[in-house]
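Lab notebook, bench 4. Still working through the backlog of constructs that have no structural model yet. Next entry is a single chain of 653 residues. Request: give me the structure tokens for it.
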Amino acid sequence: MAKPLELMKVEDITICESTAQMITKARKDGVELFFDRAQSMKACPIGEQSACCKNCSMGPCRMNVNSPYDRVGVCGATIDTILARNFGRMVAAGAAAHTDHGMAMLELFRDVINGKVKEYSIKDPLKLIEIAESLDIETEGRELKDVAMDLYHELEKTYTQVEGEIPLMKRVPIKTLEQWREAGVVPRGAMREIMEMMHRTAIGVDQDYENITKQITRTALADGWGGSMVSTDISDILFGTPAPVEVEVDMGVIKEDQVNIIVHGHEPNLLEAMVVSVADPTLLAAAKSAGAKGINLIGMCCSGLEAMSRHGLPHAGNFSDTECVLVTGAIDAMTVDIQCIKQGLQKVAAFYQTPFITTNYRAKIEGALHIQLDELLPRECTDEIVIKAITRFKNREKPVQIPQVTAKGVHGFSFEYINYMLGGSFRGSYTPLNENIINGRIRGVAGVVGCTNPRSKQDYSHVELVKELIKNDVLVLQTGCSQMALAKAGLTGPGAAALAGPGLAEVCETVGMPPVLGLGSCVDNSRILLAAAEMVKVGGLGDCIADLPAAGCAPEWMSEKAIAIGQYFVASGIYTVFGHTFPMTKGTRFEKHLFHDLEDLGFGKWGFADSPKEMARLIIAHIDKKRAQLGIDKTRERVLTDMADRRSLDALV
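Model written out:
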């Protein structure tokens, strides 16, 4: 008889106290969470290094990862061709996820403009006008509806155009755009690029890894400067452009004496409708009649980050926490839409008698209740969800155990607000940021983004990396699950400036901002691209994005979306470090191409490290290299985090 698997110690799984408590409770309850599934499901060592090709039925062909050039596939494909094909398909899948999300938002925008959808409206007409003017759409003396419809038609080209350049290329610094044109990687339209990427990586088509990389780059740029950017812009126009708001996070936001509803996913329209439903006087009265003090709407994952930034809605945690919140026994309904939704949630929810509800036709889950969100009448869906939650509250049977852990921080730093924050209403500008980089108070900028992964210690790499960066005067921009890891650790409030280096701390105290700026969901990485473009435009830090003392990092990535994001940052000129693992066979020509050659061609390049200290070292070294190339370098030592810093961090939370 096989020996039972000895489970990992909880302290080796996560640094999040709330998550640790819920893992312990789930094990006592006999409920398996994805942390334990990850331990029992060993990763394929060949697939982990992307050395397996299954693009036809002659295989799958497994290459020798220790001697990658000892054999080829049945069709003769080399390890470099196989690696490039697999990498390209990951980029295509990730770009498709963002693009489909963005196109859905654009279609909603169209239906709001033409009056078909009446439950949503244009909340930020100023941003609508600004975007229209940036795309050379006439706005003077015209009705807002007419401008909006012209903007819709222009942005639609992002997805459907088959030749030319997508509209938002007008936002790219001219030298960067010229480099893309010379390299032949300017995207035509997202659908065209994703389709061609899938075709070229099929059996017997493109078999030159450098040529495949060009299409990988073009597909990724169609995402970052296209599908994702449109999604962010339209979400801001319809639901409001975020501005800083103080928010309470972590599982302590769950209230035993209230009806708790979790919304988890990525499209903001579900949560926007839920905000209205939970405030309905009739539903509030029903909740109180059931014995509840109120209805507690809580966000999770990326749609939660958007609502947190726009409404100050409490947030319970990131991707790794989504099963754990159900273990509290206090969640009266969990409703989801698309992306990063574990199928295992349904089984956990069923054990704790929590209604688990899907709402989007693209993402149904076996065993879950499906209540379709009709954007013409969204309240029909969201009101029904609230009613089911009230019923569950009234009939709670499972014991309730809520971790009494919360943290407060400031979130909602949109591109526009950073511009205002640095210069005020009349002199809004990124000039102060550039000046403080030039004078050395700020060493550089790093975007720390991405997922959490059960094969990494939850939140650890995100938190340790960012502590190291800010102590070395690197300003950090955050999105996605990484942002929530830092929020739970108390690093998104102004008090976190105490952990920053003296130069960054001085800037933070002067401006009144934290050293870690939360920008929103993973699709909102486009805000970081715009910030980089504006830094180039302001001047003093080079002529293209590749000149900037900047870097990106995804310490615990797990999704194909992360690979697409990483590639569009690399293509834009930014050194991008991934942690935990990377889908690559070492010592191959394709690895050298991504990790070295692309930089020589005027792009950024990839990096990899398996510890946060090494990630920080790579990022800081790159920033210092760029400072030296710009002639703004000063002799300075890298500062390491010590126990005093850790005690300061504990005091913040």
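Notes after review: The first helix runs from residue 17 to 29. The CA atoms of residues 74 and 626 lie 45 Å apart. Flag for follow-up if needed.
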